[in-house]
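Appendix B, example 12.
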Amino acid sequence: MDRRSAPTTVASVLLALAMVGCGSSTTPAPLRTATAPPPPSATPAPTLTPVPSEQPTSTPQPGTFTPGSLAVTVSDDLVVRSRPEVSDTSKIYRPYLPTGTELRVIEGPVAASGYRWYRVEPVGFALNGGVTDGWVAAASRDGVAWIGSTGVELAMSTVARETAPASAAKKAAAAINAFGLDLYKRVDKKAGNVVVSPASIAIALAMARAGARGETAAQMDAVMRSLGTDKLASALNALDRALSSRNGTFEVMGGEAATKGEVILRQANSVFAQRDLPIEPAFLDALASRFGAGVRLADFKTEASRETARRLINAWVKRQTMDRIPELLLPPDLDDLTRAVLVNALYLKAPWRNPFDLADTAPGRFTRLDGSRVSVPMMKLTRCQMGGYCDLPYAAGSGWRAVELPFLGDQLAMTIIVPTNLPAFEKKLTPKVLAGIIGSLRTEPPGSENHEYGLVYDVQLTMPRFGVDTRYQLGHTLEAMGMPLAFDPATADFTGIATPPEGPLYIKKVVHQANIDVDEKGATASAATAIVMAAGGGPDTKPITFKVDRPFLFLLRDVPTGTILFLGRVTDPSKK
């Protein structure tokens, strides 16, 4: 039988592989002496590469690692090198890896320079210069662990990540933006401040779309602008590659001294599935080739194991977002019908190219939607160039003004749009309108080319510091956008993921949390989205407390016929 044509029970594959070797074995793996970096294996691996490990735990554990297993840094500033040794020919890659960075082990261990080395690939981002992997030491020379086991069993296809020209990334970006604007118009804004991540939500849904079939898939394609389809798979990979390349350390001259800082932008994907769920091999292939993701095994069926799984998922999100989202899923978000949780996490930390001077920040008035005013710290940016002016991209139109603040490296920026009437502006905001605003941003006024000396804008910017954190349950919003079948237990078709014996899969919840903080130095933001998939067709539940603490009647009846077999009452249960 063709293994790719039949569902695979992930746990059974793991059990078979466990007879061969275990990534968390207490017996150290044999070491090799490094003379040069060993080349990647040229022998094609099987479609599935499950990696056994100890029972899931949210605390990373030290140990040895087999190729294909997951590790996580347990110390700050771990160095990644081009060769498994400390030498002048072993180049150091930036950035240094912070605590909680997830690593996919490619090969090792290798003994050299007094360390045990593993060749690893950081999950969710590339190193500076587009480098995708390198060598790290597992521990210090005196045995203090620098990387540890995630304690998770993993099943992942060995299908290579798809590649595409950089230009294809724009197609995926256009789909995400159109979807995101439509979603933004529909989310609840009663709290006033709102932040969502269209990219995180769209990519998480795109993972679910990889296993959708029939009319369920058609509805998702209409809402998501085909983002999760075969047609845009390479475009999504091109976008991921492009975003990964934004990481780096940059130095820009400004004023009398150089400004130097590190830009971090990473996103990661993962699926946590019931360990006996019959996963379709084609879905594992899609996860690997489109999202660089595999399936981590969990158990949602009992209250105790479900809480362990919830903590495991939250720990993964917490690591990926650098502790900014410590608890994405709350206890009610999972139940005994949960069979899979598809998660995307996004993290950004970037300094301004032109930082605000903290000494210039002073209290100022801010007018709220209802016309009332409040005093807040206002940052001021008045000096960006040697000449003391700020040639920031600026534009103005009917009922709005806009300015753009670049981050170091000039590859990321924050656009600020100030409408005369925000609610009215939001209603008319479309991808075309937004593209027009962004396209009109210029550092030179119209007609400046005809000026004798040339003209540039000198933007004297005043804006508040701000921080926003929002959490949404997006199920009903996505249904209203045009994909109700995905949320219908009776009609959803996710047979491309799995077909559980207790009933078909459907999306029960879409949980999204995003936050952002903007100050004089720059911006830090994170987002995470969880697609909670259930089986068995159970409706959402409403907890009821029912105490039988007073006299009562009872009936013992035959359900099919309705026949009452016994009838009685109890007024004092202490009496025999």
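Residues 1-6, 10-61 have pLDDT under 50 and may be disordered. The chain has three domains: 3-155, 166-352+467-535, 362-464.
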